[in-house]
Design goal:
The protein is 41% helix and 15% strand. It is of the alpha/beta class. Helix 8 runs parallel beside helix 9 (253-259).
Length: 509
């Protein structure tokens, strides 16, 4: 039985904790006494406790994050009730700041703030063999990166076959965006490129084809970026997929030349725009050249095959609904593949808290600490945006309604057009979840033809093309249910969908 268990609760099974694997790889003489156990936040806490106690550990280390702190706190509480002799150690970004205010910290025996690669094994040796640690809260040591054992050998064959593989070529970030914990870093530091690429090559030879880089600034140093891209270019397969987070205004020609060589389906870039409002950018210490950002996004859309996942944040201090609308419209006009609409969260320890009083920021006290209203955005408008973001994922980011979305977003403002639809959909259904693709087809047809006065035939053709292109394979009989919930016009639409699917089912669009 292991003396030490490394544990975390992931949001989904497909996620594999990179942080715990770093700890496992650096346990040195304690490696053989250490086991890794990952669960999901959907599991019942007592079930997890039973599984952990069955291993008879002496120490359990928990990785605590904003998405799992509530569930992990309950697991820790139950463990302390049932086996108070087991030493519980916390680590991770959620418990690295404001530790005195957290219930989970009060329940645990020790907390390591910041890096744990060296500090966790050292604490475990003291807990198992003495001398007894004197401090409950321990500041994690930051060793040189070349003194940290890389974790990639800790990915199992099952991980490679079924889960996302997180990798990092560097740690830290030189930028100071106040909503992000990386703003606390002094700089970005790169792992030895030869050692890192050798580990990637081993993963690749073992069958890994899905790599998600967690570097905050993948394209910060172009020499390193080009070398990593060349590594994957030399190993192209039909199932290779690589995800990077890129700085939007830093895309020199040498990097463009490399990106342009990749075929469709391989590269995905997460591009954090967050806001195009210059005053807001300055207020939150975000350095971003908007003109270069726009030019680079346009190049990526028009000249590369990379899939672009762009991000905007609503609720930043001083950002109004009107200024956000202008930023969304600017980004939408560039035609990225996805626009992720996030809402500001006050992560523990981030400098965004300094604006709370001046800009009347009100945050939810419970994780994930989402902003509820600001001096520039009312609570009602924040709720409207929350619903809109959910509908945007269902209609736009899902990729199921490409042709219909073009009809829906017509008008002087694309954002206002979708906001109008969002308000109508909420008033009509009262739901933000449980809406099937057929429900959405029904509602989109009714809204476009009834509220917007769109041509029924044009709308019908767009919805049918989207429905078939999405991979739907409903039978003609099941299609008779589409759009029959509201209007006689909907019944006509359903019959038309049925006829056209019968015509196209052998050759879907």
């Amino acid at each position: 039985m292991p003396a030490i268990i490394l544990c975390t609760l992931n949001a989904k099974y497909i996620h594999a904790s990179l942080g715990l694997r770093y700890l496992l790889a650096n346990m040195d003489d304690l490696r053989d006494q250490t086991a890794l156990r990952e669960f999901t936040i959907a599991r019942k806490p007592q079930e997890l406790v039973d599984e952990l106690l069955a291993l008879e550990p002496r120490v359990i280390g928990f990785g605590v994050y904003i998405w799992n702190v509530t569930q992990t706190c309950e697991v820790v509480r139950l463990l302390k009730e049932q086996r108070p002799d087991i030493k519980l150690v916390l680590g991770g970004p959620e418990v690295s700041h404001e530790v005195d205010e957290q219930q989970i910290v009060r329940l645990a025996d020790h907390v390591i703030t910041g890096w744990g690669d060296v500090s966790f094994p050292k604490l475990c040796r003291a807990l198992l063999h003495g001398p007894k640690p004197l401090m409950k809260v321990i500041a994690g040591e930051q060793p040189p990166l070349d003194q940290i054992a890389l974790p990639y050998g800790e990915y199992t064959d099952a991980d490679l076959a079924h889960r996302l593989l997180y990798v990092e070529a560097s740690r830290g970030c030189p930028f100071k965006c106040e909503f992000c914990l990386s703003s606390l870093d002094k700089t970005a530091r790169a792992f030895d490129p030869d050692a890192f690429l050798a580990e990637l090559d081993t993963l690749y030879r073992r069958g890994a084809r899905n790599f998600k880089f967690v570097d905050r600034t993948f394209n910060l140093k172009i020499d390193a970026s080009v070398r990593i891209l060349q590594f994957f270019l030399d190993r192209l397969t039909h199932d290779l997929f690589v995800h990077f987070e890129v700085i939007p205004d830093h895309l020199p020609d040498r990097l463009k030349d490399m990106i342009a060589q990749f075929p469709p389906g391989v590269l995905q870039f997460e591009v954090g725009i967050q806001s195009f409002n210059v005053d807001v950018q300055q207020r939150i210490s975000r350095r971003q050249d908007n003109d270069k950002t726009v030019a680079n996004l346009r190049w990526l859309v028009e000249k590369s095959h990379a899939h672009l996942h762009t991000d905007l944040i609503f609720g930043l201090p001083g950002e109004t609904l009107d200024s956000f609308t202008a930023g969304f419209d600017r980004l939408f006009g560039l035609k990225p593949h996805e626009i992720q609409l996030g809402i500001l969260k006050r992560l523990r320890g981030t400098p965004i808290a300094r604006h709370t009083t001046e800009y009347a920021m009100v945050y939810d006290a419970a994780p994930p600490y989402t902003v509820q209203q600001t001096g520039a955005v009312t609570r009602d408008d924040m709720q409207r945006f929350t619903r809109l973001a959910r509908y945007w994922d269902l209609v736009a980011n899902s990729g199921r309604f490409g042709r219909t979305l073009a009809l829906l977003m017509q008008g002087p403002s694309a954002f206002q057009a979708f906001l109008d639809f969002s308000d109508w959909l909420w008033q009509t259904t009262g739901k933000t979840s449980g809406l099937t693709p057929e429900d959405l087809v029904d509602n989109l047809f009714e809204y476009l033809t009834g509220e917007r006065g769109a041509d029924a035939q044009t709308t019908r053709e767009a919805l049918l093309a989207d429905y078939l292109h999405s991979g739907a394979r409903a039978s003609p009989r099941s299609l008779q249910g589409l759009l029959q919930q509201h209007t006689a016009t909907g019944k006509t639409m359903a019959k038309s969908l049925t006829r056209r699917q019968e015509q196209h089912v052998a050759r879907p669009l």
